[in-house]
Write a structure and sequence with these properties.
- The protein is an alpha+beta fold.
- It folds into two domains: 137 residues, no CATH class; 104 residues, no CATH class.
- The chain has four helices and twelve strands; from the N terminus they run αβαβββαββββββββα.
- The radius of gyration is 26 Å and the shape is elongated.
Length: 263
């Protein structure tokens, strides 16, 4: 009598397992398909050179669709237009709710905007190669007299290569600077200077003529705030955070009309 009962339990367990696997697979396929559609529309509406990476967080996805609220949404995009340059953007939103009338809502948003060091070098010159006549258009523009490369150290500080005239000769100098944000102003504050040829490392105040460039950052939508800046291996990283966000979807819907529709 025990053997048939054991067989039934085994069969029931196998069927249940298969149903669970099928349900999970269906859920993940639906999430992947939705992410692909959103990525295509973001590429088209944003004029991006390639599709961004889009991923929905939370499980199950289909339950989130049914209630019109997504636990998490992560978007990573390269080549996002920013004036005459393109930057990288990585954003994560939680508690995203489908449009209610003309608004899409999110409980929180964290984004990192990466400005490549090649763009920082370009920003130190006007189009056509002329010397800049005003503040650098890209955040983190170099100190006065900058002529060389921009890199980063392990502490998130900028390393700016330049030269200075000392004792009648040009010597290479590396300026160690900290990118800082206060309100809507980004400051690149020189901290130290290195003189490799002399084996010296001095406070920045010991090198005359250095300045701390200040750049006015663009205004952000209501609820978002510039929160930090740091030098990374791939460029200067500016962070943005916000909570209780409400965004008007009408411009996005108008753009989506030519990007596969708004549905």
């Amino acid at each position: 009598m025990r053997k048939p009962s054991f067989r039934k339990t085994l069969i029931l367990g196998a069927v249940t397992g298969c149903l669970l696997v099928a349900a999970v697979t269906t859920d993940r396929v639906a999430a992947s398909a939705a992410a692909d559609r959103l990525a295509d529309r973001l590429r088209c509406a944003g004029g991006l050179p390639s599709e961004p990476s889009v991923a929905f967080g939370g499980f199950p996805f289909l339950t989130q669709v049914a209630r019109g609220r997504f636990d998490g949404l992560r978007v990573t995009a390269a080549g996002v237009p920013a004036g005459r340059f393109r930057v990288g953007v990585e954003a994560t939103a939680t508690g995203v709710r489908l449009p209610e009338g003309e608004a899409v809502r999110a409980d929180s948003l964290t984004a990192t905007i990466t400005v490549g060091y090649d763009l920082l070098r370009e920003s130190s010159r006007e189009p056509g190669g002329a010397e800049p006549s005003g503040p650098a258009p890209i955040p983190g523009g170099p100190p006065a007299g900058f002529t060389g490369d921009v890199t980063a150290d392990d502490a998130g500080r900028l390393l700016l290569s330049t030269t200075r005239t000392m004792l009648g000769r040009e010597v290479p100098v590396t300026v160690v600077a900290a990118p800082e944000i206060a309100g809507t102003t980004l400051t690149v504050r020189p901290i130290e200077v290195e003189l490799p040829a002399m084996g010296l490392r001095l406070p920045a105040t010991r090198l005359p003529g250095l300045r701390a460039p200040r750049v006015d950052l663009p205004a952000l939508p209501t609820g978002l705030t510039w929160t930090g800046a740091a030098a990374g291996p791939d460029g200067l990283r500016l962070t943005v955070e916000g909570a209780g966000l409400v965004a008007d979807t009408r411009p996005a819907r108008a753009a989506a009309g030519g990007c596969g529709g708004a549905a």
